Amino acid sequence: MASYSTNEFRSGLKILIDGDPFIIVENEFVKPGKGQAFNRVRIRNLKTGRVVDKTYKSGESVEAADVMDTEMQYLYSDGEFWHFMVPDTFEQYAADGNAVTEAKNWLKEQDHCQITLWNNVPLTVTPPNFVELKIVETDPGVRGDTAQGGVKPATLETGAVVKVPLFVEEGEVIRVDTRTGEYVSRVKD
Amino acid sequence: MRLRAAVLRRLRRWFEDRGVLEVETPVLSSAGASDPHLENVSAQLDGRAYFLHTSPESAMKRLLAGGSGDIFQVCHVFRAGELGQKHNPEFTMLEWYRLGHSLEDMMTDVESLTRDLCGIRRPLVPFRRTSYQDLMRQFVDVDPFTAAVPELVDALDRNGIASPAGSPLERDELLDLLLATVVEPAMDPAQPLFVYHFPASQAALARILPGDPPVAERFELFFGGMEIANGFHELTDTVEQGRRFDRELARRAEEGSFVPARDDALLAALEAGLPDCSGVALGLDRLLMYIADVDEISDVLTFDLARA
Question: Which of A1, B63, B214, B218 maximizes the CB count within 10 A of its CB?
């Protein structure tokens, strides 16, 4: 099994702790004048998303997590699994509900997503930063009504609900930032 | 770079005014540092392995034993694996030795020089001096000489520092972790602080003052919670120095780290007679960080490791 020495620690590195994959969010090297050096790291559990702090004696090694980011195309969902394909090799992967908790709101067939594979199984699915989705339901906007900050809820084709400006209408395609879940603009054909 | 040039000019004048001779010693050395906490950078030359010095200490002591009198040196030193906000594996060290200086004299020397250099841009308030024991009592409420391992682990917990996974830490390692993660960040940023009389187990190349407990005649200077300099009342006893080398090398072997050849040239120099003296190593880049009021060592380096 591959391992990383603390010398190689940097943010983004994926390591295995107690059987779970973690990603290093922050790494700080501390050393008193003449003494033992330490690496203080903030790490995020890639399965649960929980963030914890750990301390390592510098020079120690930690097992590397076999975690790989791969770009794949979203194919379809059968309700239980979400299916993806690597465009170059046509290899297919099925992600379970845990892997798409966040992402499923934004998945549109044919879109390219980043899939994090752990031991070759999809661990998390990251949708593109911006997606273009069609509004399937929203109230007609009333001009001049700015009581709610000038926004109204709109349901998208994926089932996600986002706040849109009043002038946006049903059937229009909008651009959404998937990291914040916020409306960006209308998309004109 | 201009600030660096100004500081170099000023420190050379400071030493010249006091009759301290500037010297140069080789960067390449056939003996590596034995300190288990330092990692050597090695170099190949004509099929032989050398090391880039981690400090010019050994070579400068050979000069002192040869009768050089007071000396100073500004040079680049190399420590593998030390990379961070306040660390770059290649950095500039100012090291100097004064004959007949006690540890207290040497703190006064350091204060006078750093006050002079900081005067360029960031004048200093009067320095404080505190013993290592008082420091640890004040900041983390433990007696570094008597506290047992569980007490130190508790102190770390209390301050929200996760104890390392893996092999359990020894007392000195726990004290190091407390100092680096709890005490240093809590220091008054505007108050230069000398910490002296470290535990005898952390003596490195300092004399040990017998007593209860025995303490190392060693000090460190902190600016803004950052260690700037380390000074020793230098150990001159050949037998004791040989014992410490052997212990350090044995420890490296035990830890499975690289074991360099013993620095017999230094032992021979001590045998020939190292005069009573104190010495200081000062991280010049960190002093520049303080003067320039920046948080990253890369901000004061011409080119840091990533751009080297």
Answer: B218
**Selected residues 223-252 of chain B with any CB under 8 Å from a CB in chain A:** 227, 230
Which CATH number does the domain housing residue A20 bear?
2.30.30.30
DSSP 8-state symbol, B182: I
B269 lies in some domain:
yes
CA distance B89 to B271: 32
Please tell me which of the candidates B173, B177, B202 has its beta carbon nearest to residue A34: B202
The 10s digit of each residue's pLDDT in B230-275 is 999 999 999 999 999 999 999 999 888 888 889 999 999 999 999 9
What ipTM did this prediction achieve? 0.81
CATH number of the domain residue B92 falls in:
3.30.930.10
- From the list B82, B161, B227, the residue facing A37 with the nearest CB is B82
- Among all residues of chain B, which has the CA nearest to that of A59? B81
Q: Count how many domains chain A has.
A: 3
Angular region, B128: left φ>0, alpha ψ -120 to 50, beta rest? beta
Interface of B with A in 252-271 (CB under 8 A): 257
Residue ranges in B119-256 assigned as alpha helix (H): 132-140, 149-158, 171-178, 184-186, 238-254
Show Cβ contacts of residue B278 under 8 Å, excluding neighbours closer than 6 positions. B97, B98, B101, B102, B103, B105, B106, B231, B232, B233, B234
Structural domain range at position B44? 2-125+223-307
Mutate which of A3, A27, A36 to disrupt the B interface (most B C-beta within 10 Å)?
A36
- Residues linked to residue A95 through DSSP beta bridges, in sequence order: A82
Query: At CA B160, angle to CA B157 and CA B163, rounded to 5?
Result: 55
Which chain A residue shows the shortest CA-CA distance from B203? A34
* Among A7, A33, A60, beta carbon nearest to B166: A60
B289–chain A nearest CA distance, Å = 16
How many A×B Cβ pairs under 8 Å?
A: 85
Shared domain for A111 and A158, answered yes or no, is no
